[in-house]
Amino acid sequence: MEFKDYYATLGLDRSASQDDIKRAYRKLARKFHPDLNKDADAEARFKDVGEAYKALNDPERRAAYDAVGSGYQRGQEFQPPPGWDEGFEFSGRDGADGDAADASEFFRSLFGRHAQAFHSAGPRAHARGPVAGNDHHAKVIIDLVDAYRGATRTVSLRMPVLDGQGHPVLQERQLEIAIPKGVHEGQHLRLAGQGGAGLAGGPAGDLYLEIAFRLHPHFRVEGKDVLVDLPITPWEAALGASVSAPTPDGTVEVTIPPGSGAGRKLRLKGKGVPGNPPGDLYLVLVIVVPPAQSAAARDAYAALGNAFAGLNPRSALEA
Predict the structure, then answer these.
(1) Spatial CA neighbour of 177 closest among 204, 209, 144, 217
(2) How many CA atoms lie within 13 Å of 227's alpha carbon, on the beta-carbon side?
(3) Cβ(155)–Cβ(175) under 8 Å?
(4) What are the helix and strand counts (H, E) for the chain?
(5) For a designed S-S bond to 133, which of 104, 191, 204, 285 qualifies (C-beta 3.0 to 4.6 A apart)?
(6) Cα-Cα-Cα-Cα dihedral sign, residues 146, 149, 153, 158
């Protein structure tokens, strides 16, 4: 996927104000409108200009684009870094709307989940009487162990706002949140009254925090199930053994059945992410072959080869 330089599309630099963006869009939209411009590439250019405007005219999207896109140039290979949107606080409802439906893959990869337009103006600004504030949404990344035990954590959020010169800046705040035991990826925690401010005495909106798990060097999460590779020796696989195995909640003793092969999954029921019902934990067996770095080790491998002289592990590949 190629990186799109929305500033270059509008003929602007990154210091442009929101008014600069509006003026550039209006000028280019007229220039490339298919009803007025019959050049072969006019329609494509018109679409590119419209997409750039959607990205940069919204201060929330613009701030996110600036943060993730710094250092990239037009045409460079691009993939959003994992967790790039952690802590970005978006106003309005969560989820995509028509803005992302016909946009490029690049636009959808960044804004598909946050396509709602910025709410600094609109019906709320002209309402009479108390008006409730907008709900806000943000993604927070927690450690897997917090889902097993519950925890209290301090999270940092960054909310895009406009400064006095019309440039989007990130306003930071910190919140202490209670992470309940058994929370799972994709779940939303509601913090009442922590969203946008109300108008004319109206109540503040709520803040919804979407939970994601931080990548772990050993554990992989699939829904509520957790998987971990468990290294064992060839003799433990062949003869069976009792070994220690890690879980996010501590070490347990497990039995390796005799004759186990590489890739076999041992299921520990209810040892996955807690819940009602809880997930399961799967130990994926990985057979570690010791190196033959000494005479004794080489003799041991030779003896093993003699003991299984009739074994042909490639027989299934022979015609």
Answers:
(1) 209
(2) 11
(3) yes
(4) 9, 12
(5) 204
(6) positive
- Give the span between the Cα atoms of 229 and 216, in whole angstroms: 12
Domains of the chain: 227-307 (2.60.260.20)
Burial 273-312, CB ≥16 within 10 A → b, else e = bbeeebbbbbbebebeeeeeeeeeeeeeeeeeeeeeeeee
Provide the residue type at 314 as one letter: R
Spell out the alpha helix ranges (H) of the chain.
6-9, 18-32, 42-57, 59-69, 98-101, 105-111, 144-149, 234-239, 295-307
Both tokens assigned to 284: 């994926």
Find all residues with CB under 8 Å of 242, minimum gap 6, and list them.
253, 254, 255, 256
Residue 33 has pLDDT above 70, yes or no: yes
The CA distance from 218 to 206, in Å, is: 35
Residue written as tokens 């990239």?
72
CA–CA separation, 141 vs 153, rounded Å?
Answer: 11
d(CA 182, CA 127): 41
In this prediction, residue 117 carries a pLDDT of 36
Give the C-alpha separation, 184 to 188, whole Å. Answer: 9
Residue range 45-61: mean pLDDT, rounded: 92
Answer whether residue 118 shows pLDDT above 80.
no
Contacts of 11 (CB under 8 A, 6+ apart): 24, 28
Cα–Cα distance between 229 and 263 in angstroms, integer?
9
- Mean pLDDT rounded to a whole number for the chain: 88
d(CA 46, CA 30): 9
Q: What is the dihedral of CA 229, 232, 237, 243, to 10 degrees?
A: -100
Q: What does the pLDDT read at residue 164?
A: 80
Distance CA 59, CA 49 (A): 17
> What does the block give as tokens for 100?
């992302």
Side chain identity, residue 109 = S
Burial status of residue 251 (CB atoms within 10 A of its CB: 0-12, 13-18, 19 or more): exposed
